[in-house]
Design brief:
Length: 333
């Protein structure tokens, strides 16, 4: 597969170029809004074609897939252009700034018959897949609650638009809560119905929230607690799933790396649970390629991306208003 990169981004640099190459793909071109950035980025990564116009990628029929990792407000227009050019699209989360935009992107891909995937990497990890399997096998009985610990410290090199530019999609809710929404949906196999939340801006940035806590109610009656932050250097990450017959403790698993520990606790005792340690992003690309080849769906579809955005937007609205919000899934039906 020949890929075009839309966005000369950190995530492309640190994870996705390697993931594309690890799955036998070729990174054929990179497009940035700035010619010089595209040139430097291409030189650093051995990418043959670079520039500042999307046409570089869209007019090349040998490039069949694009990976979009620009800032969030650009995803919508870039995805629509790529879909119109017949490209398969792997798009970063959050898919867009609004539910209308995200819905339009996914509907356009469906109408064009191209694959559209959301880059929710956590559901590609061996650890999350192992936790989901334990739940599905009934090892903890009926799920009562899920607690998501995803309060991290944003590295200095990423303390730009994420913490000071609401217009570019900054804020911890579109950045991390959107991932946690996908994790909850993936692990529990159901969609949050309603949320309450509080958020704060503790001074790391300007104009957007840098920490949030929220509680979600699920159709089964299970409750989900999410804590996301940019400002916690030593909190560590993890998740806990508690059921009527057991609990799962997964520590250090809300990360980009295939690491962490899982422990299952039941009446028979404590059990360490092993899991595969493949590269999360390469798995996501592999699942995308399989979908393009007609074998199954991407790890996270466009509809998964709409749903995670719907939850994140509801959390922000609940925090802004102090009022419990019903999550709006009307457009994902
Ligand atoms: P970056 O800030 O690194 O990149 C986003 C855009 O900002 C780039 O496309 C680039 O624009 C511009 N940019 C980057 N570095 C510089 C610089 N030094 N000077 C000027 N402009 C710069 O963001 P991320 O890579 O962290 O995030 C990109 C997208 O990926 C977001 O949508 C984010 O939510 C998502 N993401 C997803 C992750 C996941 O695990 N799924 C993890 C991290 C991010 P241009 O291309 O126009 O040059």
């Amino acid at each position: 597969m020949r890929w075009g990169l839309i966005g000369a981004s950190t995530i492309a640099e640190q994870h996705m170029i390697g993931a594309i190459r690890a799955t036998g793909g070729e990174v054929a071109a990179v497009v940035s809004t700035t010619k010089a950035r595209a040139r430097d980025f291409a030189a650093r990564h051995g990418i043959p074609t670079h520039g500042a116009t999307l046409a570089l990628i869209l007019d090349d029929p040998s490039i069949r897939a694009v990976y979009i990792s620009s800032t969030n407000e650009k995803h919508h227009a870039q995805a629509l252009s790529a879909i119109a050019a017949g490209k398969h699209v792997l798009c970063e989360k959050p898919l867009a700034m609004t539910l209308d935009e995200a819905t339009e992107m996914v509907a356009a891909a469906e109408a064009a018959g191209v694959i559209f995937a959301t880059n929710h990497h956590l559901r590609c990890s061996g650890s999350h897949r192992a936790v989901r399997d334990l739940i599905a096998q009934g090892r903890i009985g009926r799920v009562l609650s899920l607690r998501l610990f995803h309060a991290v410290h944003l590295p200095g090199n990423l303390q730009g638009w994420r913490i000071n530019d609401a217009g570019a999609g900054g804020g911890v809710i579109p950045d991390i809560t959107v991932h946690d929404a996908d994790v909850a949906r993936f692990l529990l196999g159901e969609d949050p119905v309603a949320v309450v939340a509080q958020m704060t801006a503790s001074g790391m940035g300007q104009g957007v929230e840098d920490s949030v806590m929220s509680v979600w109610s699920m159709p089964s009656g299970a409750m989900v607690f999410g804590h996301e932050s940019f400002t916690h250097p030593f909190a560590g990450s993890g998740l806990e799933v508690h059921g009527t017959h057991g609990s799962i403790f997964a520590r250090g698993v809300m990360t980009q790396q295939p690491k962490g520990e899982i422990e299952l606790v039941t009446a028979t005792g404590r059990e360490a649970v092993s899991f595969p340690t493949h590269n999360l992003y390469a798995q996501g690309v592999q699942d995308f390629l399989s979908a393009v080849a007609g074998q199954g769906a991407p790890a996270a579809t466009g509809r998964d991306g709409i749903a995670s955005l719907a939850v994140a937007l509801a959390v922000r609205e609940a925090a802004r208003t102090g009022i419990r919000q019903t999550v709006d899934y009307r457009r994902t039906a």
